[in-house]
Amino acid sequence: MQRAIKHPDPRPRAESNIVPMAGSDPVRHPNSVAAEVRNLRKTYNAGTPHAHEALKDVDLSIRANEFFTLLGPSGCGKTTLLRILGGFEMLTSGTCRIFGEDVSRLPPEARPVNTVFQQYALFPHMTVRRNIAFGLEMLGKPRAEVESTVERMLDLVHMTDYADRRPDTMSGGQRQRVALARALAPQPKLLLLDEPLSALDLKLRQKMRLELKSLQRETGITFIFVTHDQEEALAMSDRVAVISNGHLQQVGTPEDIYEQPQSRFVADFIGESNLIEAKVAGVTGGEASLDIEGFGKVHAPVAERVEDGQKVWLSIRPERLVLGSGDGQERAKVTDRTYLGNAVEYHLHVGEHALTARSPRGGLRGRQDFAPGDVVSVGFEPGSIKVLLS
Amino acid sequence: MFGKSRLGGFLAGASGLFLLLPLVAVIPFSFTAKRFLSMPDGEYSLRHYVAIFDPDTWLASIGTSTLVALLSSVIATALAAAFGIGIWLRRPASGRFLIGLVLLPIIVPPVTSAVALYFLLAQIGLLDTVPGLVLSHVVMIVPFAVIAILGALSRLDRNLELAARNLGASQMQSIIMVILPNIRFGLFAAWFVSLVMSWEESSVTLFVSGVNVITLPKRIWDNLRLDLDPAVAAISVIMILATTLVILLRKSET
Amino acid sequence: MMRAQSTPVRRYAATGSLAMLWALPVILTLAYVLPFAGVTLWSVTRPELGLQNYVRIFTGADFQAIFFRTAWVCLVSTAITIPIAYLLAYYWVMGSGRRSRLVEICIFIPFWISVLVRAFGWVVILRNNGLASDVANAFGLGGLSTGRNVWSVITGMVHFMVPFAVLPMASVMRKIDRRVLLAALGLGCRPLGVFWRIYLPMSLPGVFSALAMTFIFSLGFFVTPMILGGGRVVLTAETVFVQMFQTANWGLGAALGVVLLVAVFAILWLSQRVMRIEQLMSR
Ligand SMILES: Nc1ncnc2c1ncn2[C@@H]1O[C@H](COP(=O)(O)OP(=O)(O)OP(=O)(O)O)[C@@H](O)[C@H]1O
Ligand SMILES: [Mg+2]
Q1: Which domains are delineated in chain B?
Q2: Which residues in chain C are contacts of B228 at CB distance < 8 A?
Q3: How near does any CA of chain B get to the CA of A113, in Å?
């Protein structure tokens, strides 16, 4: 379980990109750990027949000033992890630290953490202004400071014109901004966002992605963002944690996660992958020779130790399969062709295996088009085969 | 939906009339000029309405009923609100059991409740006193308040409380500043229902009071059992008109 | 890989909400449930220790007559209440705007008015030489028996219970998706057939709730029967009142109260399969 901090962030943020938040400096905690959970377990209804293990031994550390995303399918435990960080749910065992302080037993109001809820949870009986002021008032800030901070927040999320409206008279995107401003106003050290964009339509979602990302840069606050939308996760995050069924699968930059999946689950969940069973037929240097039944041998680098005859899985992205004809190597049969607009997808049969290949439309890179029934050759781009042990 | 059924419409109309009939029927009797209950024989009088203002009988009972209803409805609403919010916040495993417990007074036959409350008040020496009556009324009306408040809470977004806590409010602060303002209509409904229920409570009242403390229903009861004073008709007409007015006003509002 | 000792962490202390949660149940236990125990104690200790009160209740011919009459009156009133309430609930939920509003007013005015006032209204109508006999005489139907008899009691009880019975039925009817009915019509079912084969079965849960509720209410009810029966149509609940306050027979009154309670819970238990307690309460 050391994976969590294995990958150093390869893209240190250019300091010149940071636009300080008007009137206050972005929160900076260089090199410190914003949140850390160790051996975290959560069992709902423990000790009853309905006991359910939502998180199983999770280790994770999130750096300060990072845009960190928890990604996973529905029901995998993302919200549970977020609620434990926020203090809304008690952990069953393990530890949970926020900026070094053990918060396992602190009530939510005592944590330097704020949350943007999925359905926003704006107080319906208060105006936008009063909603944003709430957290500051709870901190006992003087009136003048509350007012100036609220104005700054309204400005930050472009909602100054709506300051005296009530939440139920506003659109989803506007409510979203108010919810953000409300959570940011008390300057939390950590902001938790539970699928904040899922209630918005596609266009607005794409726009808010950019806004959220730049807001995070401007304020420098550590964001922990929950989503089950992998595109969103890849587009916004500095680092992503993939969770499945209560287990942490992999943590890394979006590139890492996409290019170097470490398990079948990640390879399959992020983007699309062809997963093929193979047998190790010899290792030389860092490279293994792999035998695919009904296809032949391929070569790929292996990081971990493997033994001859061991069963492994190969993951290949559809766009990295190269189809061709006329070179005498034809072994695959096209069973279906799907036109996708910007690409064409081919479904192939290679021996026992069903594969998917995708090629950009319009003969780019000199690729040919094929029709169902064609017999083609299949090749792999160099470095495109990823060997997975689990 | 199922075509026009004349028979169905007619029967529904008849049923509606059946429900209103006894309420309309008392109206003429309240204007009789006679001393006993009868139709006015061409002679109309308001003497029975005037009789309501007798400070020793009707007016005293109206005062008692008002006092008891105000006290018990406020107490019942407060208890029900605390209970409802407690359930909503904590979602205890025993929640269903606890709700069943507090709804018990609706399910148990009123006469059995009356015997139990009579027993209680006899033990603690509060029979036929205002505090004793308020206690019994609270027990009998609190389920209605609980139902109204649980209903309002079930429509409340749970995350509101979390958001408030998250922004630094303590549990009490979030109850006062976020939960209560958002269930204010439910609170009002709970209070109003308990007020009316207490004002009209007759079964338990008849068991636990009646000599020193005489509520309006108790006085009406005595009159119905003994001599049929036309003042009962006058009181009834006032109550019917007030109820009708409130219902029509509320209807026209929505 | 070290694993922390699995010490279950309790929710952080929130004594405030704990006190709020338990205040009402504790008060009700002390002021309501415990006294029941006292009442049960009375029923086996007054006038002396033993089960003689229960023996009396279950073997005495007078009590058997009362039980039989109670069951009969309650069954008949329930049987009359349910169709009337169903009709009103139907027109309230499904009727056109104006009709629905009229029905609603007809239901809620009596609903909110004191049971005593409503009973009084029926006294005015039904007593000897009251309105009903005047009308009967005008139509040449002299000698129509009115006044304090079992039919007066049933009329009053039906009138009392109809508004209550409407609520659970209407709440179920409101949840019926009208598109289902349109689909049935679209599939060629005749309107009356749609009612019998789709609407009625779908609204049955509400009818069951209303049935149980009406029957239970009518069992424990004594104000209306005492006023409209005038001591001539004595039902079980009224007997409790009489035993306690007119013959000062506390033990017997308490025992009857216990028997009523047991009967109600037996009925609830029986009907539990077809309805849930919340449905009984919701409107
Ligand atoms: N209060 C609870 N009691 C019992 N089980 C719960 C509770 N909350 C969540 N669970 C269960 O724990 C698991 C994880 O739930 P969680 O809400 O964390 O999922 P999620 O990853 O946020 O899913 P989604 O993307 O659908 O929001 C689920 O199987 C869920 O059924
Ligand atoms: Mg979730």
Answers
A1: 1-25 (no CATH), 63-232 (1.10.3720.10)
A2: 123
A3: 7
Q: Does ligand 1 lie within 6 Å of residue A76's CB atom?
A: yes
Give the dihedral sign, CA C164/B136/B247/C281.
Answer: negative
CB count in 10 Å sphere of residue A50:
8
Task: Write out chain C residues lying below 8 Å of A86, CB-based.
Answer: none
Whether chain C has a CB inside 8 Å of the CB on B127: the answer is no
pLDDT of residue C12: 45
Percent of chain A past pLDDT 70, that is, above it, reads 89
pLDDT attached to residue A110: 87
Buried (b) or exposed (e) across A128-165, using 16+ Cβ within 10 A? bbbbbbbbbbbeebeeeebeebbbbbbebbebeebbee
CA distances to A289, A305, A385, A388, C208 from A312, rounded to whole Å, are 11, 12, 12, 6, 61
Q: What number does the ligand 1 atom closest to the CA of A52 have?
A: 5
Q: For residue A224, what pLDDT is reported?
A: 95
Residue C258 confidence (pLDDT) above 70 = yes
Pairwise CA distance, residues A242 & C123, whole Å: 76
ipTM: 0.90
pLDDT in tens, A140-189: 999 999 999 999 999 888 899 999 999 988 988 899 889 999 999 998 98
Q: Is the CB of A119 under 6 A from ligand 1?
A: no
CA atoms within 13 Å, Cβ hemisphere of B30: 23
Give CA separation, A29 vs A99, A116, A221, B176, in Å. 9, 22, 9, 36
- Domain covering A33-259, topology: Rossmann fold (3.40.50)
Question: Range(s) for CATH 3.40.50.300 in chain A?
Answer: 33-259
Q: Which atom of ligand 1 is the closest one to the Cα of A89?
A: 1
Here the tokens at position B63 are 């005062």
Convert the pLDDT of each residue in C174-216 to its tens digit: 998 888 888 888 787 788 888 888 888 889 889 988 998 899 8
Per-residue pLDDT reduced to its tens digit, B95-105: 999 999 999 99
Of A37, A52, A85, A227, the residue with max ligand 1 atoms within 8 A of its CB, to mutate for a pocket test, comes to: A52
Partners of A106 on chain B (C-beta within 8 Å) are none
**Rounded CA separation A95/B223 (Å):** 73
A275-388 is classed CATH 2.40.50.140: yes
- Which residue in the set A1, A93, A104 is minimally distant from C1, CB to CB? A1
- Residue A364 is classified by DSSP as G
Ligand in closest contact with the CA of B93: 1
Check pocket membership of A246 for ligand 1, CB cut-off 6 A.
Answer: no
- Give the start-to-end residue ranges of the domains of chain C: 61-282
* pLDDT tens-place string over residues C157-175: 999 999 999 999 999 999 9
- Residues in chain C closer than 8 A to A56 (CB atoms): none
Distance from CA of C8 to the nearest CA of A (A): 5
> CB-CB: which of B170, B173, B178 is closest to A123?
B178
Q: CB under 8 Å, gap of 24 or more: what pairs does A328-333 form?
A: A328/A377, A329/A377, A329/A379, A330/A375, A330/A376, A330/A377, A331/A295, A331/A296, A331/A375, A331/A377, A331/A378, A332/A375, A332/A376, A332/A377, A332/A378, A333/A373, A333/A374, A333/A375, A333/A376
Say which CATH superfamily domain C61-282 falls into: MetI-like (1.10.3720.10)
pLDDT one-digit tens code per residue, C128-150:
666 777 776 666 655 555 567 88
